[in-house]
Amino acid sequence: MLNIQELDSNRLEIAASMLKAIAHPVRVAVLKHLEGGKKLTVTEIHDLLGIEQSTTSHHLGILKDKGVLCSRREGKNTYYYLKHDILSQIVDCLQRCTCE
Amino acid sequence: MLNIQELDSNRLEIAASMLKAIAHPVRVAVLKHLEGGKKLTVTEIHDLLGIEQSTTSHHLGILKDKGVLCSRREGKNTYYYLKHDILSQIVDCLQRCTCE
DNA sequence: TTTACAGATGCAAATATATGAATATTTAGG
DNA sequence: CCTAAATATTCATATATTTGCATCTGTAAA
User: Fold this and answer.
1) Set of chain B residues whose Cβ sits within 8 Å of the Cβ of A22
2) Sign of the alpha-carbon torsion through A74, A79, A83, A84
3) If pLDDT is split at 50, 70 and 90, which confidence band does B2 have?
């Protein structure tokens, strides 16, 4: 349980911007594919989700920018992975709430 | 852990729309004020957050519409409360992830 | 039944986000 | 160096969200 100090607007902005990063069907799908510490390249995600390469890169950039994902370049590929594996709980929590 | 069937686009849409409902600084603040089963009126929230009455009502409507909150009218007041108290964990989870 | 309070809704302007085509950048291999 | 593959970026357009004023609706009390 957080106290009133933790409700300050800066923290609210950060929490909301992180949530906003995740709150898109494509980006929720990306998170689910990365559950359990998996690492995928842009091309793999672009193939898995059937969306344009540039669109994929945009979405991954948003997730990385907001601290949801990390990336590591290995040769020509860039691997993306969850910064905090616990974040995938968010989606599971929501899905539990919607399955009644 | 969810299987591939649970990644279908309908579920993704639902999860994303619920997250989108929460993903706003005002609405995150509302959630935090309603933690622990608390019930607050529109006016109370409007005073707590220092935002316009109509803006408050719009935000609460979004949260209710997307299944995050419930409301009950009692006389002239409408009390809003969390539909699933577990949802407040989402914000706490995020804040833990951002406090390193 | 009038009045005032609490809340909801319609609307418009400002702002933000999403998408993809085109293009640029980075890297490995020849 | 030249090329091709993988990824990132720029840009424009389309769409969605946010905010608050004005207004409408519902309720209680006088």
Assistant:
1) 19, 23
2) negative
3) very low
